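hey team, just a heads up i'm posting the complex here instead of the shared drive bc the drive is being weird again. everything in one block, sequence lines first with there labels, then the predicted structure for the whole assembly after. its two chains so it's a bit long, scroll down
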Amino acid sequence: MIEAHTLTKTYGSKTAVNDITFTVRPGAVTGFLGPNGAGKSTTMRMIVGLDRPTAGRVTVNGKLYADHSSPLHEVGALLDAKAVHTGRSAENHLLALAATHRIPKRRVSEVIELTGLESVARKRVGGFSLGMGQRLGIAAALLGDPQTLILDEPINGLDPEGVRWVRSLVRGLAAEGRTVLLSSHLMSEMAVTADHLIVLGKGRVIANAPVAEVIGGATRVSVRVRSPQASVLASTLASPEVTVTHVEHDLLTVTGITAESVGDRAARAGIALHELTPITASLEEAYLQLTNDDVEYRTGASARDLEMTR
Amino acid sequence: MTTLTVAHDAPELRMPRALPASPVRFGGVLRSETIKLRSLRSTVWSYAVLILVSFGLAALMASTIASTIDGAVPAEGQTAIVMQVSSFPVALGQLVAAVLGVLFIAGEYGTGMIRSTFAAVPRRLPVLWAKTLVLFVATFLVGLVSTVGAYLIGIPFLAGSDVSAPLTDPDVLRAVMGGALYLALIAVFALGVGTVLRNSAGGIAVVLGIILIVPTVLQLIPADWATNMIPYLISDAGLGGLGIQSDIPGSLEPWQQLLVVLGWVAASLTAGAIMMKRRDA
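-- predicted structure starts here --
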């Protein structure tokens, strides 16, 4: 359980985290989502006491991180895949961290095996790829068998295999009743990995709800209609609550009306339909809508347009 | 760059059984810092260089002195020569010790390792004290190997000119032990400076400036206040009692020199501790 209360961090005149309050509960994967500079990493660093809050406080299992007598057993953190001395081998890095908590050598071997680093454990970290660095960071986070895991962009630089592995790892950890806080800028990844979302934008919490609710609450459902008589159909559907957008000469995106009603009205007007697809908003759309000030920019844009602007 | 590959088959998700939670104690932090010091090639190399250069310099120094000796040397002069041969390598070794001391902490800030370190030991200061202790002991032992080795290497060269002094002679012992102690204290002083500056290049520049450049500058200033300050510099106080530098009039007693060096060390570590505790990592 992570509890942040009116947490604020300013660097000079710049406010990185602005008075945020949230709770991360055990037994679920909580996604920390936000564009670069939204304050995710700063918040995570404050949780483990690396950065001192300007105001407010954040506790892990009821205590400040630094007040835990055995911090690595409470919280495992991957804050930065580069938080390793490049001149040291992966194994020695883990042994040095383990020594502080008298974690036995066998546990170091276990996490090396668990993260698939056996073949490179004795090599210097300087030669590691980003993906291997991430695995080493995750190994370090798991070292103390912690109740709470904080992973900042853990799938950055991982190959698809690794992404899948991280996904099942964090799902498994949450299923065991652990608290998992995971940040990612890959919204699609969040949609399949997280149960709950905390969306940050410009240092503030924009949304804090289950994933489905964030998706449902942020975007209206639209319908994609393809018809050789697209223009006729558009005027047939026209009404104050319905918005029709011409995407291509024969393709419309319609919002404010269900796919069933579109089909019924087209049938009544004798218009042939070649495609009728209800579009559920992707998390990505919901996210962009939540975090972008310029809402007009996206109004009427299709999911495909968003994919392209990304 | 070599391409390293990792096993692609993800291991099955079995969380190993819960570990018994053991609290962070100073002994563990000490062991952690020992592993860190040992597991970097740069440290091992630096210490090896320090020892080898010491041996080489001792041989060079002893043979040069032996070749210039003409006739019998009084007992007091013999002791002075042996002291000089044994501790001369310290004058160069202090540079290696200074670099090592800065790198031991600034290397962690530079690579980001410090964040892993502070995540494991969030109270932070035990890290600084453990680093201090580990670095002090390791450098003292390496220093002792250097000075005792220098003594043992120098003796045969000097024997040809009938110059000798036993290792048990209080003055020789002071040069040998004091040389090793000075190296260890310089390393720890540099550790404090590295903690304040958090930057390898900057830390090394500042420490070498204090050791090498400040004394020279003070000597060049034709004013009494400048000359009077020289004995209170860390390098002059440290090397002064070792028989390397000729006694400057009004120089300090050995115990006072030790206090001066300790004062520099205490100041740098205190500044380092305050900065380490207060700043974001």
